[in-house]
Amino acid sequence: MVAQPVVSAVCHKLPLLGKLIPQAKAQQLALVAGGGGFLGSHFVDALLTLGYHVWVIDSWHSGNTANLAWATAHYPKHLKVLTADVSQANVVDVLQAELADSKLTLALVAHLASVASPPRYQQCPLHTLMSNINGTQFLSKLAAQHGCTFLLASTSEVYGDPHVHPQPETYWGNVNPVGARSCYDEGKRTAETLAYLAAHSPTELPYQPGFAVRIARIFNTFGPRMHPADGRVVTNLLRQALAGQPLTVYGTGQQTRSLCYVSDLIDGLLRLALLPALAVPEHTPWLAPINLGNDTPITMLALANAVAELYPTAGSVVFEPLPADDPQQRCPELSRAKTLLGYAPTTPWQQGLADTLAYWQNHVNVCTV
Ligand SMILES: NC(=O)c1ccc[n+]([C@@H]2O[C@H](COP(=O)([O-])OP(=O)(O)OC[C@H]3O[C@@H](n4cnc5c(N)ncnc54)[C@H](O)[C@@H]3O)[C@@H](O)[C@H]2O)c1
To answer: How far is CA 262 from CA 7, 48, 71, 98, 177, in A?
Structure first.
């Protein structure tokens, strides 16, 4: 009898995992750049559960080795952690040398290596820009040479301050090229262009058969392992709750966000990276970008009230003036993900919030960062 793989608490919620486990092939390698971060580490857990060997590449700008504790404990023989910076040209040489010494077949290169939290990437804007630009150029080239899938973690920020709601993939966005967020937003937009060129310019950028380019435009995602100083609404409210402080709501709190629980997002990434994409003609590696997230809007007041209910020692809700650049709504249009990938977020945000709070309560030290 084949032993059942060990599955992490977040991965237990993945509807696709059980279907993919029987397809797992021995000696297949997935490289996950940014695998020490919030999303990357859950993606690593899922790939290990599926039987992949996983090499994490991380510069530790915003990641944490503690995020890989579950993977290290349960899959020590299948996991390798390399400290390297994907914005530096030597990353390809380092990886090629490691690959030459191994008997593994490279099946997936996933690029999640970018600081994602606005206050944190604004502390290293040039590094953020180049992690997205150089990282995409170097890692897509590696995938092209090995004839495997290149998965780029892009973002809803490519839509900037959108004029269209909800945002479909066909919307080209409203982005400021010279502002505090430009290093991230324009870095991702250029990364998408580079991924597009890797799939469309075979004379300049030759690729082996099997090369595939997949771009996930990820919308606001939350869950265990997200950094407490992330600066976004869920972490801000949970931090305030755990510190017994008042919960800040801006404006009337009627502005909405669409928050995706991490298991749903990882399910989407797996579908994009591993399922044969039905609509892709065989002669091209290209599949146009796909939105991933949750399309259920939540008012910020409802979110704050839910945090107060979950954590009764939190202070009461206080209202502060709406910041000038606070968008009224942001929501993904998910019909492409639903049609092409069979993707459908299933975790109610209230459940995700409770799971995230429980994680933080058990990891008190992360809340003091
Ligand atoms: N979390 C979200 O809601 C969200 C939304 C949209 C897009 N994304 C994208 O998903 C990816 C992962 O986001 P996250 O929330 O897990 O962020 P994170 O900051 O937790 O993880 C990013 C990881 O990449 C590493 N890293 C950064 N620059 C690097 C470099 N040059 N070389 C190697 N490693 C590097 C960091 O140390 C960290 O471990 C990012 O590309 C981000 O832009 C995330």
So the answer is: 15, 17, 17, 31, 29
Q: Taking Cα atoms as reference points, which of 260, 266, 320, 324 lies closest to residue 294?
A: 260
Whole-number pLDDT of residue 82? 97
- pLDDT tens digits for range 193-213: 999 999 999 999 999 999 999
113 close to ligand 1 (CB < 6 Angstrom): yes
Q: Is 121 in the pocket of ligand 1 (CB under 6 A)?
A: no
What is the spatial distance between Cα 14 and Cα 85, in angstroms, rounded to a whole number?
30
Residue 167 CB–ligand 1 contact under 6 Å: no
At 257, give phi and psi (nearest 5°).
-135, 160
Check if 28 has its Cβ closer than 6 Å to any atom of ligand 1.
no
Residue among 267, 281, 285 nearest 334 (CA): 267
Q: How much is the average pLDDT of 321-338?
A: 84
Q: Cis peptide before 166, with omega less than 30 degrees from 0?
A: yes
Query: Tokens at residue 303, please?
Result: 């979110």
121 and 184 in contact (C-beta within 8 Å)?
yes
pLDDT of residue 15: 76
CA-proximal residue: ligand 1, atom 43 (nearest)? 116
pTM: 0.95
Give the atom of ligand 1 at the shortest distance from the alpha carbon of 64.
39
Report CA(118)–ligand 1 centroid distance (Å). 11
Distance separating alpha carbons of residues 92 and 141, to the nearest angstrom: 9
Q: Considering only CA atoms, which of 125, 192, 196, 190 is closest in space to residue 153?
A: 192
Nearest-CA residue for ligand 1 atom 12 is 112
Instruction: Report the candidate in 230, 222, 221, 232 with the shortest Cα–Cα distance to residue 367.
Output: 230
In angstroms, the CA 65 to CA 31 distance is 16
Residue type, 99: L
Task: Yes or no: say if 32 and 44 are a contact pair by the CB < 8 Å rule.
Answer: yes
Contacts of 88 (CB under 8 A, 6+ apart): 134
Give 124-171 pLDDT, tens digit per residue. 999 999 999 999 999 999 999 999 999 999 999 999 989 999 999 999
Q: Give the C-alpha distances (Å, rounded to integers) separating 53 from 75, 95, 103.
A: 9, 14, 11
Ligand 1 centroid to Cα of residue 214, in Å, is 17
